[in-house]
Amino acid sequence: xxxxxxxxxxxxxxxxxxxxxxxxxxxxxxxxxxxxxxxxxxxxxxxxxxxxxxxxxxxxxxxxxxxxxxxxxxxxxxxxxxxxxxxxxxxxxxxxxxxxxxxxxxxxxxxxxxxxxxxxxxxxxxxxxxxxxxxxxxxxxxxxxxxxxxxxxxxxxxxxxxxxxxxxxxxxxxxxxxxxxxxxxxxxxxxxxxxxxxxxxxxxxxxxxxxxxxxxxxxxxxxxxxxxxxxxxxxxxxxxxxxxxxxxxxxxxxxxxxxxxxxxxxxxxxxxxxxxxxxxxxxxxxxxxxxxxxxxxxxxxxxxxxxxxxxxxxxxxxxxxxxxxxxxxxxxxxxxxxxxxxxxxxxxxxxxxxxxxxxxxxxxxxxxxxxxxxxxxxxxxxxxxxxxxxxxxxxxxxxxxxxxxxxxxxxxxxxxxxxxxxxxxxxxxxxxxxxxxxxxxxxxxx
Length: 446
Fold this sequence. Notes:
The chain is of the alpha/beta class. The chain has two domains: 27-236, Rossmann fold (3-Layer(aba) Sandwich), CATH 3.40.50; 266-444, 3-Layer(aba) Sandwich (Rossmann fold), CATH 3.40.50. It is 28% helix and 24% strand.
């Protein structure tokens, strides 16, 4: 992470500190906590799902106006595990509620001891009474309830009701972190409920945040995917095509080697090592379209010919949309079917740089023998990218000859990719047009 002097930018906020922190909190949650009312939020999910990272990121997003009450780790360990919060959350605002007998050497923080409910609430209030619009994170509520001796279900419900009422009357915002996933009485008492889960796609991690309730605030997007890259919580917004008002022709990325060309995305070049002779893509069309646009822009600006081969798409929109970003003398050729491709083969042999051939494989699958023969010839003279929707037969046949094999998926509105060959985890794709052309960023889901 690098030094940054940026301050705040609504939902995507960078604190002035010795770290540049790239994180985003859903707009609904920011608005939920932006008024001056006391309220309660329940964050639930299994261990390791990202509940604590979300709560700490939210505290930083709300300008550090809060108290983190930890029953999991002492403050020293917390700072070691998440050093990016050090300047966003002061030591005075971290309450050691672990009941640990280990002395604190470097941080002068008084531990919170549990005796009875009034003392517990008084301790919370004492630490927040000088903070404007304070947020209190209790991590975890199960441990606090246990420490206060409220094991009986009816007594615990009474305690939870009292704390929710306490939050509203004192204008304190309280976040309860729990490790159960089912519905319990606390779900109905609190003003908001968020569930955080881990799932897998093809044995690759995907993290999901579900906004179940935010009382009094509309939920525009109930489900987000997110990452914990560098220990920071970052959600991804659903894809929306952005208009470019003043398009430029970006400086192209050179080929990686004699056998591998640039994908047009520096991060993807680093991840898969560029595109080889035959590259297979399978899945949803949107992520493939984004990848192809970057490749066409980069290749055309390197004076490489691009040949688009399909019987279905005569003039696809996503090719028309890249024209403002490529040189006027660039060659983007549309080929309608196999017969026309045969006619173009000899013409493509004389190119200084191997042309790019983009083929919709399923268009020609029924003419398999003829297609395979022509494809072999094309691969000798071109860098080929073959796309198919999720179709096991096509991809199983093509996989053995693929230099790279990438799956493309739209997950809750977010275009994502992951490599089958080479193997990669899932990456979320974002498109930024602020520099005058569609610039792609890949963020690993970890």
